[in-house]
C-alpha cells in the first residue's frame, strides 16, 4: 500500500482537532476566552453636587398678633414689677428715715449728757470760768440765767472750797422733732468741802431738758429739776 501525502492546506493534525473539540465551552471557558474580568473600584467618585438633593427651604409662618390672654399676662407682670419697685423704694425710705431718727436721738442724748456733766462739775479754782465752758451747750434765755446763777454762788463756794462732781447715770429721749426735743437726764452728784470735814454730800438728781436745734447743733433752752434725793450723812 503506497503512502499518500498529507493535504497541504491542513496544517493541524487530527489529534489536535480532537483536543480542541473536547474542551468545554461553559462559563469557565467563556470567561477565559473573554479575558480577565474587570474589578470594580472600591472608592467611588463623589457624586456631582448638582445631583445632590437640595436643602429644605425654611417654612415661613405668618405673624400672628398676641392674643388677649398673653396681653393680660404681660400687663399683670408689668404691674407686679412696678408694685415691687414701689414697695422696695418705700421700704428703703422707711429704713433710711428710721436710721436718721436714731442718729438724731443719739445726738440729743450725747449733747444732754455732756452738758449736764459740764454744768455741774467744778472746783474752787475753775468755777469762775464755768459759764464760759458751758456756753457752747446753752441757748436762749437759759444761757443768761445760768450765768447769773453761777456768778451768784462763785464767791461763797470759793470761800468754802466746794468741789462738785456730777456723773450722768442715764439719759432718755422723751420727745423729738425736726428742731425741738425733750430729754430726761439722771445724775449722781457728789460735793465736798473742808467746812463739812470733806464728808461727801450725795444727791441723786434728775432733770428735764428742752433742746432746740440751731445751726445743726442742739442747745439747751430750758432745764427743770424733776426729782432730788439727798443722801448726805447727818452727823
From TrEMBL:
Subcellular location field: Membrane
Region (Disordered): 1-57
Transmembrane segments: 72-92
InterPro entries in the cross-refs: NTF2-like_dom_sf (IPR032710)
Domain of life: Bacteria
Keyword terms of this UniProt record: Membrane, Transmembrane, Transmembrane helix
One Gene Ontology cellular component annotation held by this UniProt entry: membrane
Name the UniProt record assigns to this protein: Mammalian cell entry protein
Species per Swiss-Prot/TrEMBL record: Mycolicibacterium fluoranthenivorans
